[in-house]
Amino acid sequence: MQIQVDTHTHTYASGHAYSTLIENAKMAKEHGMKMFCATDHSSAMPGAPHYWYFNNQRVVPRFLDEVAVLRGVETNIMNEQGEVDLHPSSYDHLDWIIASFHEAVFRPAGKVAHTQALMNIIKSGKIDALGHLGNPNYDFDFEAVALCAKEHNVAIELNNSSLKGGSRAGSEERCEAIARVVKDVGGYITTGSDAHFCYDLGKFEKVSALLDKVEMPSDKVITHTPQQFLEFLALRGREPIAEFQGM
Asked: Where along the chain is Zn(2+) 3 bound (predicted)?
């Protein structure tokens, strides 16, 4: 399946990634991306930047190397209540917010606890997508979370890094199962390279193959085109981004 938007990328600001935003943009263009989201880790992750980093993304041009840039964050799910570590002032400065489990922040606590945390953060209205749910360390009720995400227009991510086996080993079968459940309930899929080095940005060979395998309808893959991604942001209640009108 064609994918033109990468909604999960990192720069060296995350503390354990190795490229700049400009380097990411250059590789995004080379790899055929029309748009990508800058989603460095928020504060609870060791090495992550101060919240001013996210609030100040307004200084970043909306286009770099002719590729559209969304201002975002990968925030951490902190507890079963679905709280995240994003500073309250940051929400007004961001276009795109992913929430993810990370072992350094939320220690694995069992299927019931993970399901509760995911459903609570969905219902909070504070996040646009759930990141790398295939991680076997964080089992959850796939159907319950997929239904909740559909009801609240929250996208579920298919993460190319997870599918490559280099990180979150054991995610492959779970990602396929999650994708099938999301398809069955009519939910939305987003796609992220989770690039921590620019060469990986916009590479979706594993994700694209999985989407084809499960026969995911392209109108449910919000990263299929920039227009679909912007339509999803509007569905989420986001204000239009003037610079992207007509994409």
From this structure: 74, 102, 132
Give residue 13's domain range. 5-239
Write down the pTM of the prediction. Answer: 0.97
Is residue 247 assigned to a domain? no
Residue 215 CB burial class (10 angstroms; 0-12, 13-18, ≥19): exposed
Residue 245 is assigned to a structural domain of this protein:
no
What mean pLDDT value characterizes the chain? 96
Annotated binding site: 8, 10, 16, 41, 74, 102, 132, 194, 196
Residues 59 and 28: beta-carbon distance below 8 Å: no
* Distances from the Cα of 98 to the Cα of 7, 56, 122, 131, 191, angstroms: 9, 18, 11, 6, 11
Q: Which residues sit in the known binding site for Zn(2+)?
A: 8, 10, 16, 41, 74, 102, 132, 194, 196
For 16-44, the pLDDT digits (tens) are 999 999 999 999 999 999 999 999 999 99
